[in-house]
Amino acid sequence: MIKLSLRARLLWVSLTLLLLFLSLTAWILDQAFVRSIEQNARSQLQLHVYALLTAADEHEGKLSLPEVLQEPRFNQLNTGLYGWVVDDHGKVLWKSGSAIGDALTSVDKLTAGQRRFSKVNPTGIDRYQLAFSVVWEGAGDSEYFYTFIVSEDAALYQTQISGFRRALWGWLLGLAVVLLLVQFAITTWGLGPLKQMAFNLQRIEKGDSDKVEGEYPKELSGIVTNLNLLIDHERRQRERYKNSLGDLAHSLKTPLAVVKGSISMTQNHDELKKVINEQTERMDNIVAYQLKRAMAASPANLSQKVVVAPLVDRILGALTKVYRDKSITTESDVPTDFVLGGDESDFYEVLGNVLDNAFKHCQSHVKVSAKRKSENNSASKNRISIEDDGKGIPESQWEEVLSRGIRADTSVAGQGIGLSVVKEIIHSYGGTINISRSDLGGAKIEFLI
Fold it and tell me: Is 201 contained in some domain?
């Protein structure tokens, strides 16, 4: 099966639709012109009938017409115009000089005043024919029924129809060529941004660029944004895996060295077992931590939808049990229909880290709230806020605590990596994270995504 390019497909569809449209248009115009020609022929024949009626006379019960009529075509052979008068029995009472030797096509009996227009072919030549029945009042109030019949060769009219059809198809074919050229130009211009996008993607594949560049129409800007987002996620993922592997190798050196040194030293079995258990537990924690970081750096799945309220309730329930000794009260103001696009594990990691910090540093109260972006403002974003009533974070450290290994309060256990992971995940979705002071007195962590 031959694979056509997108432009070729569009042009093929356009050509097919154009031919169908022009064919239908040609048929409609042709039928309208033919009906107009036939109506003109009928009007001309009606005038000839009236001319015969005007010239006719009745004498002693007999209808007569002059030998020479005013219309010369009735008087000469092979002029293409013929006339007859028949009685109510179909008997020919009169025929024009042009109709000598010409057979009359049988005509159905008509009522007085009735007309019948038809197309006949008595001698192999198409003719238009009009029959008109009249009641003739003779002497002594006598009445006679006559039918006046006029017939004309259709050759002249068919010549006009043929000429019209040639001109019609000539113009329509010319129009088709012009429209196809215009369609080709429009298609080439319209597909230009897609061609540019394909070229930029090829540059990315070759390593000549790290994102899709250029200006694109509104319909493609969203696709370009998502492509760049996914490309950025992929690059970040590679960097994170590389960093995680390096950090993992470096972190495992110390416990491995301790185990190796312990084996080489003279120790009893119980002491050696204790050291090995301690170091293997430490290595297990290091591996779990590095895997967690690698998972947090995975590309965002924008096609999934996450309902936030149940996720918040689940995390709050778990943390309440962990910190049950602090008797913390929680407040959740998250609409039940508040939805974010992305991977649930990412948002679980974000909310879990920040809420864990809030529980860890608060006095007795933690609040979670959410607000949907405005539908009337395309620049607005979804907003999630987490607040506590603890000591808060000094303003001078609002930016520092988002860096890896920085902790605002060193008196509380931790490694200082939670908020840095949160920042990276939020940024991977094109969002931002802000730190400020809460009305509760502690810290306020706000996500705009």
Answer: no
CA angle 407, 410, 416 (to 5 degrees): 30
Residue 174 lies inside a defined structural domain of this protein: no
Domain boundary, last residue among 296, 320, 351: 296
- 305-346, pLDDT tens digit by residue? 899 999 999 888 878 877 878 889 999 999 999 998 887 877
Q: Quick check: 92 and 82 in contact, CB under 8 A? A: no
Contact in structure between 404 and 416 (CB atoms under 8 Å): yes
Reported for 402-406, long-range contacts at CB under 8 A and 24+ positions apart, including other chains, are 402/433, 402/435
Q: Is the dihedral of CA 284, 286, 292, 294 positive or negative?
A: negative
Q: Are residues 154 and 223 in the same domain?
A: no
State whether 110 and 252 are in the same domain.
no
Crossing angle of helices 218-264 and 418-428, in 10° steps, is 150
Residue reference for tokens 């039940």: 336
Residues 261, 349, single domain; the answer is: no
User: What pLDDT does 125 receive?
Assistant: 83
Q: How confident is the model at residue 46 (pLDDT cuts 50, 70, 90)?
A: very high
Residue 205 covered by a domain: no
Considering only CA atoms, which of 399, 405, 400 is closest in space to residue 247? Answer: 405
**CATH number of the CATH domain containing 109:** 3.30.450
For 71, list phi and psi in degrees, rounded to 5.
-85, 110
Same domain, 253 and 337: no
| Calpha distance 17→325 (Å, rounded) | 76
430 phi/psi in degrees, rounded to 5:
75, 15
DSSP string across 296-360: HTSPP-TT-EEEHHHHHHHHHHHHHHHTGGGT-EEEEE--TT-EEES-HHHHHHHHHHHHHHHHH
Residue written as token pair 């197309």: 119
Q: Which domain holds residue 20?
A: 7-160
